[in-house]
Predict the 3D structure of the following.
Amino acid sequence: MNRAFDRASIGFFSGQYGQVIRDLHALTGDLESPGSPPGSSARLARSLKATLVPPIAVAGPRLDIRVDCAPMYALDAPAGRPTILARLDPAAGPGAQAEHPWDPAAQVQSLTLALDHAAPGSWRLRIAIRDGAEQSPWVDAGQVCVLARPLEDERRALAARLESLARSDAIAPARATARARLDLLADDAGAASSARFLADTHELLASVTAEVVALESGVNPYAGRAGDHWRVVSIDAATMPVRVFAPDRSDPRPDAPDEPLPLLIALHGAGGDENMFFEGYGAGAIKDLARQRRVLVAAPLTYTIMGSPAMFDRLVEDLARDYPVDRARVYVIGHSLGGGAASGLARLRASALAAVCCIAGGSFPAVGKGGDPIPFAPTLVIGGALDPIVPAARLRAGAERARAAGLRVEYREKKDFGHTLLVGATLAEAIDWLLARKLEGEVRPTP
């Protein structure tokens, strides 16, 4: 599985997107339904991309949603005459389900779902394929958001309220984040912006509205905010998107009710973005680990932070203003390209970091110009024995040179793991290694 996933990763970087999707869907089919043929109903259902028209609608007595289904890659012709099934969850009464016979002559298979008395809310689209007596599992294929009035009207009204706020340095960062979150509210979700297409528009609109109300009262709505949210960090004209997760402090640990939070900065690999750690690696396992270990997690856009250590400084400052950050327990973890960025920060910000972890990536210079060891935060390097993208031998040799020069670099290698699936498999181990260290060099008991 690791080898197959890494072949898909190499295909992704080569621009072979259709083949990559096909290979990943085939791999998923092999795992979910071992022995199922390529033309099975389950694989056919998974191959379809569903486009909803409109994706964002206005509430009314009746709402018709057109669903256009098209294969994302070349398919083997269905053996029989399958039927496409579609439904919206939660069910909205009669008319919330539909079916359509597969038309072998059509590039796009279209069907219509009728919602009676459509109230504001969010609806998940599920599709399946029925072929004779066989029906595939339902596949999550998208979302329809129903709003009380057109989204652009809502966005313009909130933007006007934000612009009317008195200028104040105290709420300037919060205002910038509110404005950026408001920009995510677009009728076209934007295929290139995961922050847009991953968002539940109905929930985001309600949240941003509450944030604007708070700012109008002079309150920073992001200070101490528990849970998961998307924000921005800015220096002059440069803006960096960041995904943030904070554990709920309303139920503090009885032994340390006011203990500051460790801060973990997570840097994604090439081809990803600020949502990669929260939605991808290990299916977002980092949030569960942060909740269990009471850690504040920030996942910025790696491309921005790797070229600007000053953006790292601003990120820490902004989060320390909004949360009780323990400055002696600031950590960085990175994968692949993010591992390279993490090792760069281990050198450039050694005095600010308690420890760093580089997974399937990183660069470890042994000595400075004078031949003396350079400042370098304690670093754990994790390589995958099967990794064809950043070979484990290269990481191992770099870590050994750094350690021989006196740097505090530890290397671990995982058998049977490759480049990408390694992340989810080692996150818990990596985070516990990081949390055992403080900036002063003290090693704490592993949580």
Notes: The longest strand covers residues 60-71. The chain has a mean pLDDT of 89. The CA atoms of residues 58 and 149 lie 5 Å apart. DSSP finds 14 helices and 17 strands in the chain.
